[in-house]
Amino acid sequence: MSDRYNPTTRALNLSSFHNSFPGKSFYIPLSRSTVMQKVVEIILEHIPEVVAIDLSNNQIFALEPLVPYIDRLQNLTILYLNNNKITNMRYLSKLKGLPLVELKVEGNVV
After folding, report:
1. Which of 21, 42, 69, 104 could pair covalently with 80 via S-S, beta carbons 3.0-4.6 A apart?
2. pTM of the predicted structure, to 2 decimals
3. Residue 8 reports pLDDT greater than 80
4. Residue 25 main-chain phi, psi, to 5 deg
5. CA gap 38, 44 in Å, rounded
6. Among residues 94, 55, 98, which one has the least CA distance to residue 73?
7. Residues 6 or more apart from 65 whose CB is under 8 A from it?
């Protein structure tokens, strides 16, 4: 994941995360709650200073996996969720408590 992090901007690009492992015989989609939770735990452990995360193009439909970590993501001000499978604005309310100044959800059905 370190090749996806820019320490200068403190931005983490996890767009199309499932394509991060070419030639490997496994599939790690962020749309699975357990995968998303583990990735967030790794982020909090290794780069808690992250201010921007791009989760675009991951077929994410649920944001519940982020909820237990919201109080520890207080540096996160930019979140991109473009081109996922979010179908209801109500799901975005799960992000309440994050200090977001920029949230992008283009390409979803919301």
Report:
1. 104
2. 0.92
3. yes
4. -95, 30
5. 10
6. 98
7. 33, 34, 36, 37, 40
